[in-house]
Structures are given as C-alpha cells and as structure tokens.
Amino acid sequence: MKYRLVCGIEVHVQLNTKTKLFCSCVNEYTPDDPNKNICEFCTGQPGSLPLLNAECVRKAIKLGVSLGSTIPEKTRWDRKNYFYPDLPTGYQISQFDNPVVEGGNIDFYIENKDTGEFSKSNVEITRAHLEADAAKLIHAGGKTMVDFNRCAAPLIEIVTEPCIHEISQAMAFVNELQLLVRRLGISDADMDKGQMRFDCNISLQNAEQQKNDELPPYRVEVKNINSIRSMGRAMEFEIIRQEKMLNDGNIPKQETRGWKDDENVSVSQRSKEDAMDYRYFPEPDLQILEISRDEIPSIEDLVELPSVQRERYLKIGIPHQTTNTFVTQSRAGKVLDSVIDIADAGDEYSDNIVITAANIIAVNLIAISIKDEKSIESLMNPSNIIDLAKLFDSKKISNSGLKKAIDFLITNPDLEAREIVATKGLMQVNDDTVLGAFVDLAIQNNPAPVEEYKSGKVQVIGFLIGQCMKESNGKGNPQKFGEILKKKMM
C-alpha cells in the first residue's frame, strides 16, 4: 500500500452520575423536555460558580485503573476558551496539561470478516480528562435553538496515541471501550443519546514516513461522529479524499471537518486549532485537586474486566464468536460461570464439557430467553446444563434430542436432565444393527438419491442421513448413519 493510515481517536463518554460535573442539576437526557435540568451555572449566568462533583472524579479514576494508567497525586482544571452558540460562558472547564488519567492501554481482538479469524490488537491511551459538556444546538425551520440540558454534563475524554492503522482496528477499539465503561458502571455509553461520541484525527503516511516512523506534517480532525458504523464510513471517506490529494502532489490542509452522516461526506468547518488557539489558562474558580493514594482502587477491587473474562473463556477453548456472546451479554456470562464452577467442582470436569455447555447456552438458551422474554438465569439450572452437555458429548442424545430435552426442562424446571432424557425416549440409538435397519428403509424408499450417490454425487449423502433420522424419529446417531450408508451403497 502506498499510504498508511495514521489515526488517533478522542472518545467523549458521558458519565452516569446523578448530577452534573460542576452543579447540582440532574444529569439526565431529556430530548422531549428541553431546558428542564438547568441552573445559573449551566446557562453561564454572571457570578455563578462551579462546585465539583466528587463522584465524577471517582469514576474517572476507576477507568484509569482499568486501563493501567497513572493517576497523578494532583490534577487541576483549565479554561478552554472558544466562542460558539452552545457554550454560554465562552469557555469550557476542562483539563489541559495535568489530566486525571495519564497513559494506559486497552487490549482487544479484531475479526477478519473474510476468514472469520481473530487477531489480538492494542491501542495506547495518551490521557483521559474530565470536562463539562456543551449545550446542544437544534436546527429546525430555518432557526437554531439551544437546549441547555446537556450543558455541564460530566464528560471523560479518552485520547489515544496516533497508533491506529486500520479502520477495523478503530472500530474494534471503540467497541471494546464501550464494553469496558459499561462493565465498570461509569457510563451507559448509549450512542443514540449522545453518551459516547468520537472525533478522529486522520492523516496518511507515505512510504518514507513509514520507513522512518515519522508522522505526516498535517492532521485532519473529523468531528460529529456518533456511531461506530459512522466512524468507519468517515475514516474511509477521509482516506480516499486525502489519498487523492497526495497523489496530486498536494498536502491536505490541517483543519477540522464535520461528518455529515446523511450525505456520507466530511465538510470543512475551520482551520485546525492548536492549544494556543484555545488560550488555556488555570481555572480560577476551582482549587487544585489532590488525589489520595487511598482513594485509588486496585485492579482486584474492580469487576472482572471484559478483556480478562474473554481470555479466561478462550483459554478453556470456547471459540471467539461464542466467547464474545458471553462477554457482551453479562447475564449469559453469569450463567456460564455458574456452569464452570459446578463442572470444576465435579468428578467429570473437562474443557470439552464446558465448551459444549457454552454452546448450549449461546445457541439454545439465549434464543429462548429472547423469544419468551424471560431472563436467561430462570430458564434452566446450571446442573442440568452440565448434564445435557455430558449426554451430548457422549453421543447419548442427538441434536434433535437435545432440543427436545431443553424444551421439557424449561417447562419442568424441577426435573433432572437425565430423568427427562430417559423417560421421554430421547436417548440416541448407537447400535449398528438397529441403525442398519433404518438405513435399509431409507435406501429402499429413496432409490433416485441412492443412484445419484453411486454415480458420484456424494453431497446427496446429507439428504439420505436426514431420511435415516426421519425413519428413526430423530433418535439415530447421524454420524453412524453416514458410515453405514456409505458401506451399504458401495
């Protein structure tokens, strides 16, 4: 490739505290009730003063610990000066050179959509700082209105290093970050509600810059991105736009561009600001914040992080796709962990049993939970899941028998899996003599497919196995049916 993407992402995450960052107004998203949760400070009234919400600081520290970041002993607030209709004071209270979180990284996996394979990746975090959100502008009927409900809402802005070189890497990183902040309980991170938003700093390295590990002499910031899908499209558009300019011998202008999702284009907004353009200076109405080492939790004090949970399942041998189901759906993950605890404590523990149990939960129970609108924990006790996995692994029940057993157990939760399988006639037939009789019937009743198989159309074996299963009322072992069919049709 002639050029390589160089991207750093700024992720704005709205914290889910009860009140805003610097006032006691309710921190609530109310699109149908504008200007409901506001006060003198939110609307920039002269003489109003900020009062720090300590819970916002605690949530930021929790994020920092999860990222392996450094939490400084002292941090301060700065005024970031700029004028825009959504900023009534003409400045934003933020953090410039002394953020509450410094450094860190986040691990995740990227799926190759073509091969289905997963590769491990990592993004370095430069910093994360707290700041007060701006208001929201609403454009309608040729007018622009301002809703101050979001003004002064607590944001944590996570800034990455310019270490992202693939669109898939950027999207996987943001997915993992959303999962992390939700797991930590610090944000709902609902993109539809603007609780997680992105700015992407994008440039392209030429071959010489790649060789010398040099950054390009420009960067373009694309703002107003509010979904992972939109971020991917915005990055793709910018790569094509910048590549064309570079091929024509032009260096893209350092600027801020806005993403227009409905038109699938980025448009120039203004020349790119440097720190000096914001005229940062220490916030005079807030003291320097001292963070006691006793207030910083250890990583062991936090909930199990998604990356740790994922590696635990992968180590057992649970496939990536199935693992992702349990990491993203926490209630299903709790069911699986209960199964692992029981299996680990039993005499017949094996990774294969847990893998099969995981598949039963992911394929069968989650679907039933959604269809019947029931919590997945209420469907079946973990001991029965383990027993079904053992029966299936030992080929004592078929896939069809497994599904029937699950249905019986959900409607009869007090019964045991082995009892259901035995009393309902769900045991799989493995006896070659019995299976041979069913094969004979299938061959006798389907002469045309048999002749097709004998003439070289081997894929028809699947149909014939299905006919054997039908003759056995779903009780035969399909693998053995296949073996016997091949022998009898030689």
Describe the structure.
By secondary structure, this protein is of the alpha+beta class. The protein folds into 3 domains: 4-299, no CATH class; 304-420, no CATH class; 432-488, Arc Repressor Mutant, subunit A, CATH 1.10.10. It is built from 15 helices and 16 strands. The strands form 4 sheets. Strands 1, 5, 6, 7, 10, 11, 12, 13 and 14 form a 9-stranded mixed beta sheet that branches. The chain has a 3-stranded antiparallel beta sheet with strand order 4-3-15, with no helix packed on it. It starts with a strand and ends with a helix. The mean pLDDT is 93.
Number of discrete domains: 3
Contiguous low-pLDDT stretches (5 residues minimum) are none
Number of helices: 15
End-to-end gap: 53 Å
The Rg value, from CA coordinates, equals 29 Å
Helix-residue proportion: 25-40%
Query: Total number of β-strand segments?
Result: 16
Q: Please outline the major beta sheet.
A: 9 strands, mixed
Principal-axes shape call: elongated
Overall pLDDT level: 93
Estimated share of beta-strand residues: 15-25%
- Helix-strand category: alpha+beta
Topology, element by element:
Blueprint: E1 4-14, H1 54-66, E2 74-75, E3 78-81, E4 91-94, E5 101-102, E6 105-111, E7 118-132, E8 136-140, E9 143-147, E10 154-160, H2 167-184, E11 196-205, H3 207-212, E12 220-225, H4 228-247, E13 255-260, E14 265-271, E15 281-282, E16 289-290, H5 306-316, H6 320-328, H7 330-345, H8 351-372, H9 382-393, H10 399-411, H11 417-423, H12 432-445, H13 447-454, H14 461-471, H15 478-488
Parallel strand pairs: 12-13
Antiparallel strand pairs: 1-10, 1-11, 2-16, 3-4, 3-15, 5-7, 6-7, 7-10, 8-9, 11-12, 13-14
Helix pairs in contact: 2-4, 5-6, 6-7, 7-8, 7-9, 8-9, 12-14, 12-15, 14-15
